[in-house]
Each structure stands twice: as C-alpha cells, then as structure tokens.
C-alpha cells in the first residue's frame, strides 16, 4: 500500500511539473494537474493540501541547489575569492553555476519567472536582496583586510549589480543553450564582473 501511495505522489509531482511549465503557477489548476496525473481531483488533496504546497514540492530541488550555491561561496554574492590577490573567480564556481543552470533549468524558470500568484512570487526579489546584502558585507570585509581599496560604493549601485546577476540567470534558463555554451558564457560573464569590481574598488 505504501509503495502505491509513493508512486501516486511521484506521478503527481511529474504531472504538476509539466503542467506548471506549460501554464506557470497562475495558469495552472489542481484540476488540470489531476487530469495530467490520471487521478481524481479529490485524491490530490490526500497528498498536497493546496496548489502552493504542490508548487513548492516541485521546486524543492531547484531551491536546494540555489541554497547550496550560496552556502558554498560564503553567501557573499559569488565574491568569496580574494579580488585583491587573484586574477578571477575559481573554475569550480564557474562549473557550479553552470550545473545549477543546466540541471535545474525548468525549476529555475518556474521559480524566477513564472511564480506569479504563488507564495514564492517574491523569491526573485528576495534573492536580489540577499545578493545585495552579501556583496555589501563582502566589500566591508575586504576593506578591513585591504584598507587601501575604495569602498565608496552605494547600496543602490550594488543592488542594481545584484539585479543584473539574477536577471542574467533568468536569461540563461529561458534560452536552452547547450552546456558548453552556458559554461563559456558564465566564465566570460564572471570575468567581466570581476574586472568591474576590481575597477570599482580601485585595486591596482
């Protein structure tokens, strides 16, 4: 009996993902998901209390991957490496960002672009704010370690840089680029961003 229940839940998640991808959160009904899964509408509620709960379950893997990326790089906006003493971001960062985009493309598109009307609607803005706070914290830490750098950078400016990074991630997930092209783009984009930060901080 337990195996049967787990198989129904798995099928509901599969059907929900494909239905959400087709219609976004707002354009998808529990009835449509039930039909795609081949179960009755009432049966869905034995597994998920409401559409938001099902949406979050579908996106759990993508959200966990995003969280791991932030944690792996010190939750400082991808600037955990030493801008003063290094030539650029580590290769592992480039590979990890590429993995995030390639492996979780559908989930990230739903989460960042198609969550309107859901409890996760504010996730994208929250991510930008988190990136902003982490980047500002990084600049303050770098200033303590290297007093000669310029830290006269406004919060509004950093917020816009963070928005640029997150919106670029949105562009990457919207376009189904092959992995090697995604990795080349991420490498060049991070190199461009690193050069910009070094110029802003007046690192010689």
Structure notes:
By secondary structure, the chain is an all-alpha fold. It is built from 9 helices and no strands. Helix 1 crosses helix 4, helix 6 packs across helix 8 and helix 7 crosses helix 8. The chain is elongated, with a radius of gyration of 20 Å. The model has no long low-confidence stretch (mean pLDDT 89).
In short:
With 204 residues, this protein is mainly α. Helix content is 70%, strand content 0%. The chain folds into two domains: 1-49, Arc Repressor Mutant, subunit A (Orthogonal Bundle), CATH 1.10.10.60; 59-200.
- Characterize the main sheet: none
Radius of gyration: 20 Å
Mean pLDDT: 89
Order of helices and strands: HHHHHHHHH
pLDDT < 50 stretches:
none
The tally of helices reads 9
Which features does this protein show?
204 residues, mainly alpha, Arc Repressor Mutant, subunit A, 70% helix, elongated
Furnish the topology, listing elements before pairings.
Blueprint: H1 2-23, H2 30-37, H3 41-44, H4 51-72, H5 91-103, H6 105-113, H7 123-145, H8 155-174, H9 179-200
Helix pairs in contact: 1-2, 1-4, 4-6, 5-9, 6-8, 7-8
């Amino acid at each position: 009996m337990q195996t049967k229940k787990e198989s129904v839940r798995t099928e509901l998640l599969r059907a929900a993902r494909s239905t959400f991808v087709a219609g976004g959160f707002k354009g998808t009904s529990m009835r449509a998901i039930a039909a795609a899964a081949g179960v009755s509408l009432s049966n869905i509620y034995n597994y998920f209390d409401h559409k938001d709960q099902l949406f979050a379950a579908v996106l759990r893997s993508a959200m966990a991957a995003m969280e791991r990326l932030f944690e792996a790089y010190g939750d400082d906006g991808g600037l955990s490496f030493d801008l003063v003493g290094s030539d650029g971001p580590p290769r592992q960062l480039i590979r990890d960002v590429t993995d995030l985009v390639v492996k979780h493309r559908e989930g990230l598109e739903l989460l960042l672009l198609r969550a309107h009307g859901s409890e996760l609607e504010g996730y994208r803005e929250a991510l930008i704010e988190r990136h902003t706070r982490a980047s500002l914290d990084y600049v303050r830490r770098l200033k303590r370690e290297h007093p000669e750098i310029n830290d006269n950078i406004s919060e509004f400016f950093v917020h816009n840089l963070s928005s640029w990074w997150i919106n670029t991630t949105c562009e990457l997930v919207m376009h189904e680029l092959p992995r090697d092209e995604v990795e080349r783009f991420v490498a060049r984009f991070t190199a461009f961003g690193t050069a910009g930060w070094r110029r802003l901080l007046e690192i010689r």
